[in-house]
Design a protein that fits this description.
The complex is a heterodimer of chains A (183) and B (163). With 183 residues, chain A is α+β, with helices and mostly antiparallel strands. Chain A is built from 6 helices and 5 strands. Classes of the chains: A alpha+beta (183), B alpha+beta (163).
């Protein structure tokens, strides 16, 4: 009985620290977000405090992503890795590969933005024809997407029912297909 | 230079044996042979050691075949010598090689009548050189499929001093 009491007491300060860290993360990510978008100068006259805003400042489901959650970091990492692929010059593979085209990078970035919340499952890699590909694994399923300079997405999808491939210019349709198959 | 000379001596021995005893051309790569493609970009290998599709990068503007070495015939030291030499020539690091059997290559069959093959194509520098000819020109998704099948059938062997 005494042991249980001691354990609980020992954990109490740790929980408090974690809470502070979480609040600090929220403040930092909020600051980053404010820096990323243009915000009008704060007008104190418009500050209206009501009970509801104090109780629920954010939607319950959106709160984690506002506080710099792993998915935010994963999305940043994915964007960084896509941009890093874009820095590869000619012959990066030793077999005469072309430098990665900026148009292809831009199309990949636009598509990645559709999967902000699942960015951790995507990996970027270059293709020797100067394009970029995104690859995702979900259980035993795999999706390989390639973004051409013109914005065409060529895909190969590995599912339990076999391998499927095709091409589309419609990134929303591609996302819908992936959502149905994997997410 | 000496490594290349030794490789040619080895190749002549193999060629004579193949022609006299096996009654076949030494340029024919049999199914049990292992071939290896040199890797100069770290991103061709995933964190779990599996190969990415771009290990078999397909660039029709530069090539008409994937360049490989007949790894089960050549001495490992010679293959390492070539990899390091090619890395130096390209100013890239040699990371190792993607190994795949000739049988696995011939099992790569996309959804048409074409099937992959591997053919010996010796050159002055390397008597154990071989080519996997590219498939006929198709749309990107078809080519991705072929590359994926090759990458899935291959395994990565990191560069290290042969024992």
């Amino acid at each position: 009985m005494n042991t249980v009491t001691m354990t609980l007491d020992a954990r109490a300060p740790l929980a408090t620290t974690a809470e502070y860290v979480r609040i600090l993360h929220g403040i930092l990510s909020g600051t980053r977000a404010a820096g990323a978008v243009e915000i009008e100068p704060f007008n104190h006259d418009l500050l209206v405090v009501d009970d509801q805003s104090i109780e629920t400042p954010f939607d319950a489901r959106s709160t984690p992503s506002m506080q710099g959650t792993p998915s935010d970091e994963a999305f940043d990492q994915l964007r960084t890795s896509i941009k890093a692929v874009g820095t590869l010059g000619a012959d990066w593979d030793g077999y005469g590969a072309e430098p990665i085209s900026q148009q292809s990078i831009d199309h990949a970035l636009l598509f990645a933005a559709l999967y902000k919340d699942k960015a951790e499952s995507f990996q970027a890699s270059p293709d020797s024809d100067g394009t970029i590909s995104l690859e995702t694994h979900w259980g035993s399923n795999e999706a390989h997407l390639n973004f051409s300079r013109a914005g065409e997405i060529a895909y190969v999808l590995q599912t339990v029912s076999g391998r499927h491939r095709g091409r589309t210019f419609d990134s929303t349709a591609m996302k819908d297909l992936l959502d149905v198959l994997y997410f | 230079m000496f490594s290349t000379f030794k490789a040619w001596i080895r190749y002549f021995g193999f060629a004579i044996q193949t022609i006299i005893f096996d009654r076949r051309s030494p340029g024919r790569v049999i199914d049990d042979e292992d071939v290896a493609r040199e890797i100069f970009y770290s991103g061709c290998v995933k964190a779990d050691g599996k190969l990415r599709r771009n290990a078999f990068g397909l660039n029709r503007k530069k090539d008409s075949a994937w360049s490989v070495n007949r790894a089960s015939l050549a001495a490992p030291k010679f293959l390492r010598f070539l990899g390091l030499k090619h890395g130096r020539q390209r100013n890239l690091k040699y990371y190792g090689s993607a190994h795949i059997s000739a049988r696995a290559i011939r099992d790569v069959v996309p959804a048409d009548n074409w099937s992959a093959d591997v053919i010996g194509s010796l050159n002055c520098e390397n008597p154990f050189h071989a080519d996997i000819p590219y498939p006929p020109s198709h749309q990107k998704d078809y080519e991705m499929d072929v590359q994926l099948q090759l990458a899935e059938a291959a395994f990565f062997q990191p560069e290290r001093e042969p024992s």
